């Protein structure tokens, strides 16, 4: 039924309602049935239902008592929140108003009345809801109470507090007030909505925050959810930001904070922007001096800002005339009338710098008070004070920082000064108007006690005397009369700043003077406390107390005294009891006995004449001492211009010169300077000419020699000293100046060095003429008299500078030009050594001594023997430093003379070689040879005669150069260089070895002196075994002195007799080598033995090769020429080689080398099938194989070998050869898929009967050819046993027997009625028998224990001329009397094709009947024709079966 009336329905609607009412009543008993009509909620009442204004039900409008209009929506789902799910179907019309528990889905929410009956007159009092989430879990007003109309403190408080106090609400409401409009700052403004309280329907969803970004609450804002509530935070809100960026621009991401809603403290000033640490703009500088924010922002403090202008979207600056206040982010401005920015010297204001920028103190202190570089205003005494080290503004003005801040009270309008400044605080005043003084400043205090001293008036200056008074008053030197001040300032050029940094006498005590300490440079107690006069304890370590070169010395306590002599700062001579001065090069000049020599050191005054007295060497003279300048004067120094203090370089002084009459000076540069660490040797001054043509290691003068009339620059030092390694040799001529025993040292107690005179005094005696600069001395003499007896008799008298005019002959004879005269032969054995043997003097007299040069020991007063090179190891009977004139001795143990002892001075006339040992000449002419000791029979003689004379008769004489390098001259390299004699091995000894006649690697001979044996020579070990490469002979390492070495035949000593395989086993050498005598142990022509060649003289091919042997095994002289291995199966030497000769070139004749001859039915191949037939590979003792088809004559079987091979899979000559890919071991059938033969791997060539017991046919092709995994024509499998042998009708109802004995009439086995099919049927020229026990089909029955007896293995016809010839030879059996039991029918003559092919014998299908072939087949190009088996049908052999019957039976029999 409808319960209300809508406009427009009228009476018709009412009538319809009544009708429907009747229907409903009639069907009341069917209430649970499915509804007959599609009723909707608004068919009965509006959605949401109307609320009755009278409290009574209004049937006309459908309104009833309640507050549905403000609670429900337009769908039934909104009703279900309170009434449950049943109200969404018509079934709820049961007269009961149901209110469910857990209202609005909130656990524990309930309606006070539960369910109740629906009546037209509702009760006067309805229920209330409690704990329901849409009313914030509060007890609601009674249902149907007047609707809440406008939001207010009362209406909002119905559910929650109108003035919330949770979390940060209080903080915000304190700032913005509690009006409802304030809520809209963060939440939706419900006061502007048509239904302002409709937001209660959002229960269960998060509270809406409309500004910024708020994260949190996790839907748990109800009181009961406090335990699980997550309180969030705001971000990106202007009200929680710094207002603008740190540069005065718009806010950026880093300028926002994210305060936690639950944290009341997060609303403090410094959570959004900083307070005392605020760094944007110029806040930091202002807050540092005054932390009161209210100075610029009205009503603001360091901890709060409660004014309405806070967070109002504007930058509010109330004071100072700031020109950029207003909208945030519009940049920074400046103040124009702020009291803190005013002139310090008057009342006028000063425009401030732009906010955020700093002009420093100079922004206000300008004009007359502009700041100085020291950071102080240019007024009063500021500059003097700030110039002091450690001075700071805050020492007089609290909190002031130079160039940064004037202190906390700086901007208060007065000048506040500490240290009891009279008149402080002082009103601002113009510069220069001062009257005040400091009375307690530490910088103005008594320097000798703790009491302060009143300072001068600010801006005035009274000098040092204002503090240094009384006993410490300044003296005439400008120094206080305390300690050692007067002594120091009394020195020329000395100032206060030498000890006190920055101090100026009478003006300033230095930059650190006012720090209450006494600061002294390089003073041990500095800085020290002020102290009474006379109480000192420190010492100095400064430059004025040094050794003059920066090395500090110990000073006395301040106020004490220095020693009277030099030792206080730097050492002096030994007379002072101190060491000599150790700085620089002083020691090198004054205390250098190791170089200068004892008693030769220099005195101080020789270089410092203006400072030190030459007489005393200690007394200081003049006023230049301690002036920081090194005076350089004196006899040796030559003047201060010769020394540069800054570089320490001495120059132009005689001490460091070449020593010539016109000296060349050496500048002491680099590490040689005064402060350098170089130590000079003799060539530090002379021997160092820049453009010299030679270098003097010992320092001998090496200036250019100019030998002219004046002799001023004559110089022969190079000739005398070039080979010297130190200065001791200089004493040879300057014995009174140079130490002859110690290198780089002058002679002790000699004043000759540096005396400007060149003394010449010979160590070995003699005289020197200054006038013509010539000398007569032992150095230039003939050393001793004739025959080595007596003293020198001839002198050369050379002039100094006459270089190049002397030769060996100028003093003694020229040993390289001696003649065979009595006079020259009296000079010992020199002629035999220096002329005949071309030996250098150095061989006996040591390195450096030659015909054109002399060594270091030359002319030293003795005859020096120092054996070198070939003379090394020689023993001489006299001392090696032998005095001249004592005669001659003997040489022994020398390499030159081997084991002999030779007398010096004895001459021989034998031929050159035989002076020391035997020769080829002595061996050939007298059959003798002697060793170097002269013995003809010693072990060292050995078999020289046998080799050199060829007396063994095994070869021509062996020349010396086969074992030794024959010297072109006596002194050639390798000759006479020690024992044993050097063996160098010639071409025969090193000739490549032979193994099996094949030339191998060159031999590398070796001689073992200990055992006197030769190893690995071609002569004795060059013939090697092919099996292991070792020498064949039993004496391959002969002993040199074994006279019986070649006893007996001798042949087996060097090679086996006969030689090893592949050589023949025959000992009949002459049969192949005609230079061997018939005895086979001697030679007809021994020149052909041991000549590096294998001399073979056989010419007939059959002389070496044969297919048989004619030798009796007991006859060692018989040469077995039988070819080995499988040759007998593959070839026949007698068939091919008869009459063939090497000399005729027959072995390369293609007319036979690729030919095939048949023997016993099998092919025998010419040599060219397997071997290369060319002169380069023949007779090289290697069995060469060549199976390459491209190397054969066209059309031969060899061309059918597989192209590219490989043809040999393994090869060991004489023992193993395995071939592959060769036609003769293939299936003979070209595959249709590979277009190749199927090649088989052969048995090993040397295998013994490898096919015994196997099916020989199956080794190359199948048996039949397409069986056993070997590819062949499929037709072969159909041509076995007989015609249709396993499927022949017996004429009744079965098949006849497949096989049976003779007389059985079976399909196979009875030769009277059936012919056996085998290879002989079609290849009758190769196979003539029909039995084939090894055949793939035959062997299934014909076995030893089988049903049929063995018949025999198929054999190749002994007269065959066609097997393995490269062709498929089809030759049909003749006559072709093929018998077949496969009779077709009776009346065979009725079928023409059968009748013309077969003849019927003995009827049809009887035991003795059969059909006999009438015609012989023909085969052309792979096609068979006129074959009875196929009823005369032409057949292609390669046709693949099985064939259909119609292939042969062209029509069924009639």
UniProtKB/TrEMBL annotation:
<keyword id="KW-0732">Signal</keyword>
<dbReference type="Pfam" id="PF09698">
    <property type="entry name" value="GSu_C4xC__C2xCH"/>
</dbReference>
<feature type="signal peptide">
    <location>
        <begin position="1"/>
        <end position="33"/>
    </location>
</feature>
<dbReference type="InterPro" id="IPR010176">
    <property type="entry name" value="C4xCH_C2xCH_motif_GEOSU"/>
</dbReference>
<dbReference type="InterPro" id="IPR051829">
    <property type="entry name" value="Multiheme_Cytochr_ET"/>
</dbReference>
<dbReference type="InterPro" id="IPR036280">
    <property type="entry name" value="Multihaem_cyt_sf"/>
</dbReference>
<dbReference type="GO" id="GO:0016491">
    <property type="term" value="F:oxidoreductase activity"/>
</dbReference>
<protein>
    <submittedName>
        <fullName>Cytochrome c family protein</fullName>
    </submittedName>
</protein>
């Amino acid at each position: 039924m409808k319960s209300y009336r809508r406009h427009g329905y009228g009476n018709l609607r009412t009538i319809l309602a009544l009708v429907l009412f009747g229907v409903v009543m009639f069907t009341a008993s069917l209430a649970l049935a499915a509804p007959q009509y599609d009723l909707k909620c608004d068919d009965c009442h509006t959605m949401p239902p109307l609320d009755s204004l009278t409290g009574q039900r209004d049937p006309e409008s459908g309104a009833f008592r309640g507050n549905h209009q403000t609670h429900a929506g337009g769908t039934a789902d909104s009703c279900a929140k309170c009434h449950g799910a049943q109200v969404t179907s018509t079934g709820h019309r049961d007269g009961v108003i149901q209110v469910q528990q857990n209202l609005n889905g909130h656990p524990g929410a309930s309606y006070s009345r539960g369910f109740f009956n629906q009546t037209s007159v509702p009760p006067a009092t309805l229920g209330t809801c409690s704990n329901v989430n849409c009313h914030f879990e509060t007890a609601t007003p009674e249902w149907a109470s007047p609707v809440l109309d406008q939001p207010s403190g009362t209406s909002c408080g119905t559910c929650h507090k109108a003035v919330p106090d949770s979390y940060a609400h209080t903080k915000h409401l304190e700032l913005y007030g509690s009006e409802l409009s304030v809520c809209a700052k963060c939440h939706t403004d419900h006061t502007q909505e048509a239904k302002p309280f409709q937001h209660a329907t959002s229960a269960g969803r998060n509270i809406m925050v409309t500004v910024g970004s708020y994260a949190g609450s996790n839907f748990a804002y109800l009181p009961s959810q406090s335990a699980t509530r997550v309180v969030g935070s705001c971000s990106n809100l202007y009200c929680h930001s710094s207002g603008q960026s740190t540069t005065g621009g718009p806010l950026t991401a880093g300028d926002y904070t994210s305060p936690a809603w639950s944290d009341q403290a997060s609303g403090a000033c410094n959570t959004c922007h900083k307070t005392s640490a605020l760094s944007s703009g110029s806040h930091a500088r202002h807050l540092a001096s005054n932390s009161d924010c209210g100075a610029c922002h009205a009503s603001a403090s360091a901890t709060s800002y409660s004014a309405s202008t806070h967070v109002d979207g504007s930058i509010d600056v109330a004071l100072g005339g700031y020109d950029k206040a207003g909208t945030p982010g519009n940049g920074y401005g400046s103040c124009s009338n702020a009291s803190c920015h005013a002139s310090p010297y008057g009342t006028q204001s000063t425009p401030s710098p732009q906010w955020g920028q700093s002009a420093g103190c100079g922004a206000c202190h300008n004009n007359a008070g502009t700041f100085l570089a020291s950071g102080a205003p240019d007024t009063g005494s500021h500059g003097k004070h700030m110039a002091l080290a450690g001075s700071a503004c805050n020492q007089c003005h609290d909190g002031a920082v130079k160039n940064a801040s004037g202190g906390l009270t700086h901007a208060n309008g007065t000048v506040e000064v500490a240290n009891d400044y009279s008149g402080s605080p002082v009103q601002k005043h113009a510069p220069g108007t001062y009257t005040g003084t400091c009375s307690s400043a530490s910088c103005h205090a008594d320097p000798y006690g703790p009491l302060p001293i009143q300072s001068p008036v600010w801006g005035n200056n009274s000098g040092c005397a204002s503090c240094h008074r009384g006993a410490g008053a300044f003296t005439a030197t400008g120094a206080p009369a305390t300690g050692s001040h007067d002594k120091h300032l009394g020195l020329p050029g000395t100032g206060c700043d030498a000890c006190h940094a920055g101090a100026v006498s009478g003006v300033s005590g230095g930059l650190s003077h006012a720090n209450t300490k006494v600061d002294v440079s390089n003073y041990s107690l500095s800085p020290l406390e002020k102290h009474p006069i006379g109480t000192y304890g420190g010492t100095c370590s400064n430059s004025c107390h040094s050794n003059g070169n920066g090395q500090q010395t110990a000073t006395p306590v301040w106020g004490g005294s220095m020693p009277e002599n030099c030792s206080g700062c730097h050492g002096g001579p030994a007379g002072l009891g101190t060491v000599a001065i150790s700085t620089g090069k002083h020691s090198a000049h004054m205390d250098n006995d190791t170089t200068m020599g004892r008693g030769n050191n220099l005195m101080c005054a020789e270089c410092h004449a203006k400072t030190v007295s030459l007489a005393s060497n200690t007394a200081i003279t003049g006023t230049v001492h301690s002036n920081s300048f090194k005076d350089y004067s004196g006899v040796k120094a030559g003047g201060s211009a010769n020394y540069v203090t800054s570089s320490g370089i001495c120059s132009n002084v005689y001490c460091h010169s070449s020593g010539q009459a016109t000296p060349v000076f050496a500048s002491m540069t680099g590490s040689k300077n005064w402060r350098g660490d170089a130590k000079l040797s003799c060539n530090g001054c002379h021997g160092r000419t820049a453009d010299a043509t030679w270098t003097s290691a010992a320092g001998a003068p090496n200036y250019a020699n100019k030998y002219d009339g004046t002799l001023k620059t004559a110089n022969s030092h190079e000739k005398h000293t070039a080979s010297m390694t130190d200065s001791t040799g200089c004493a040879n001529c300057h014995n009174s100046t140079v130490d002859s025993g110690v290198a780089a040292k002058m002679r002790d107690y000699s004043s000759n060095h540096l005396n400007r005179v060149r003394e010449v005094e010979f160590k070995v005696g003699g005289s020197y003429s200054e006038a013509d600069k010539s000398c007569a001395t032992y150095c230039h003499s003939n050393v001793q008299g004739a025959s080595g007896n007596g003293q020198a008799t001839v002198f050369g008298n050379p002039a100094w500078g006459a270089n190049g005019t002397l030769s060996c002959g100028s003093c003694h004879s020229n040993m390289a030009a001696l003649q065979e005269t009595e006079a020259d032969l009296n000079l010992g054995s020199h002629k035999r050594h220096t002329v005949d043997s071309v030996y250098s003097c150095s061989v006996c007299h040591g390195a450096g001594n030659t015909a054109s040069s002399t060594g270091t020991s030359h002319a030293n007063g003795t005859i020096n023997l120092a054996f070198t090179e070939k003379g090394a190891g020689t023993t001489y009977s006299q001392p090696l430093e032998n005095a001249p004139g004592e005669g001659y001795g003997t040489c022994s143990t020398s390499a030159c003379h081997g084991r002999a002892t030779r007398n010096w001075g004895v001459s021989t006339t034998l031929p050159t070689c035989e002076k020391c040992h035997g020769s080829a000449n002595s061996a050939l002419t007298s059959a003798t040879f002697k060793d170097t000791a002269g013995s003809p029979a010693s072990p060292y003689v050995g078999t020289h005669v046998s080799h050199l004379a060829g007396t063994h008769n095994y070869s021509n004489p062996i020349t010396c150069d086969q074992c030794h390098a024959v010297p072109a001259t006596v002194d050639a390299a390798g000759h006479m260089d020690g024992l044993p004699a050097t063996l160098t091995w010639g071409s025969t000894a090193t000739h490549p070895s032979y193994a099996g006649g094949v030339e191998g690697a060159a031999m590398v001979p070796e001689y073992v002196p200990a055992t006197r044996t030769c190893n690995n020579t071609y002569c004795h070990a060059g013939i090697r075994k092919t099996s292991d490469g070792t020498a064949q002979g039993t004496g391959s390492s002969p002993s040199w002195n074994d006279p019986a070495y070649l006893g007996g035949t001798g042949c087996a000593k060097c090679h086996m007799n006969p030689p090893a395989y592949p050589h023949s086993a025959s000992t009949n050498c002459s049969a192949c080598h005609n230079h061997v005598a018939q005895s086979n142990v001697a030679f007809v022509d021994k020149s052909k033995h041991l000549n590096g060649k294998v001399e073979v003289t056989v010419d007939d091919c059959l002389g070496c090769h044969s297919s048989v042997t004619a030798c009796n095994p007991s006859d060692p002289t018989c040469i077995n020429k039988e070819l080995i291995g499988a040759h007998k199966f593959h070839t026949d030497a007698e068939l091919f080689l008869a009459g063939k000769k090497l000399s005729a070139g027959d072995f390369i004749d293609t007319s036979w080398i690729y030919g095939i001859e048949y023997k016993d039915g099998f092919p025998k191949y010419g040599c060219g099938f397997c071997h290369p037939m060319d002169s380069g590979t023949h007779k090289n003792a290697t069995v060469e194989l060549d199976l390459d088809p491209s190397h054969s004559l066209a059309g031969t079987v060899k061309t059918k070998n597989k192209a590219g091979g490989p043809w040999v899979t393994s090869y060991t000559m004489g023992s193993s050869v395995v071939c592959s890919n060769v036609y003769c071991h293939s299936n003979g059938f070209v595959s249709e898929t590979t277009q190749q033969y199927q090649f088989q791997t052969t048995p090993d060539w040397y295998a013994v009967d490898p096919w015994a017991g196997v099916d020989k046919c199956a080794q190359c092709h199948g048996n039949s050819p397409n069986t056993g995994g070997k590819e062949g024509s499929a037709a072969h499998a159909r041509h076995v046993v007989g015609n249709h042998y396993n499927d022949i009708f017996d004429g009744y109802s079965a098949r006849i027997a497949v096989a049976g004995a003779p007389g059985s009439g079976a399909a196979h086995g009875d030769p009277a009625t059936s012919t056996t099919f085998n290879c002989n049927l079609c290849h009758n020229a190769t196979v003539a028998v029909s039995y084939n026990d090894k055949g793939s089909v035959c062997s299934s029955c014909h076995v030893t224990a089988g049903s049929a007896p063995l018949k025999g293995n198929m054999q190749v016809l002994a007269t065959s001329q066609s097997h393995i010839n490269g062709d498929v030879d089809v030759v049909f059996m003749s006559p072709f009397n093929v018998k077949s039991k496969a009779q077709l029918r009776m009346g065979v003559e009725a079928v023409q094709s059968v009748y013309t092919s077969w003849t019927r014998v003995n009827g049809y299908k009887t035991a003795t009947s059969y059909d006999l072939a009438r015609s012989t087949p023909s085969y052309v190009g792979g096609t068979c024709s006129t074959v009875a088996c196929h009823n005369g049908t032409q057949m292609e052999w390669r046709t693949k079966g099985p064939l259909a019957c119609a292939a042969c039976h062209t029509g069924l029999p009639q």
